[in-house]
């Protein structure tokens, strides 16, 4: 399990539209681990300049220590807005940047150049602004999800189903039973594998129906079992459910501690019997990672 920003939790990433100071304030005051002020999909074209100013002013009013969890989603690099977004918000020192519709590692490297110049201009520590990348929103990006190892600034990868459906000309991205169709299940898997290969956090995409909290809990628990460390949220009501789903339970922590203690009492053993099964070193590594996650505040 990757270490993200030291002891930072990355369970819940709550979007707040950048054109609403009220919604940004509500999101900031809530329990989300990370808050993403959105300049992309949530903001109409004509409102983007105003939203940049709102986000910059909002960030400036927050003590610098509190901005670590306050990120900004800028517009895609292949459009006309990215540089204006960055130039407006970087002097206010957001904790990080979400890059949407990334086509591959080259987009991250270009973003790194932009951020480096703006950090120097704003007196910000070089390289301190971190990045989460949306890696499956274009068709070509699906073929580059494994290319992010060592990419500058990247601490997490996430994926998207709606823009991908638009990119491939699909009329729907769900099967009749309500689950994601194969292409979008593939996108989820490629994001998970890409994040693992890069040693960064895999973050599950949104659940659009924010009233279905039971369905959200089921889905969040499933993707956590698959290896995801957190999930995007579009409504404050989703945050507590996500935080709980991605937090180890007491029984999980107790079982993990038992495994760690078992190996500690048998040093040098590669495999060991445990409750009728054989455990080896990967089981120990997962138990240690679970305990480390449980220690994060």
From TrEMBL:
Its cofactor is Mg(2+). It comes from the Bacteria. The keyword ATP-binding does not apply. Keywords: Lyase, Magnesium, Metal-binding. Pfam families: HpcH_HpaI. One of its GO terms (molecular function) is lyase activity. InterPro entries: Aldolase/citrate-lyase_domain (IPR005000), Citrate_lyase_beta/mcl1/mcl2 (IPR011206), Pyrv/PenolPyrv_kinase-like_dom (IPR015813), Pyrv_kinase-like_dom_sf (IPR040442). This is CoA ester lyase. The keyword RNA-binding does not apply. Residues 11-236 form the HpcH/HpaI aldolase/citrate lyase domain.
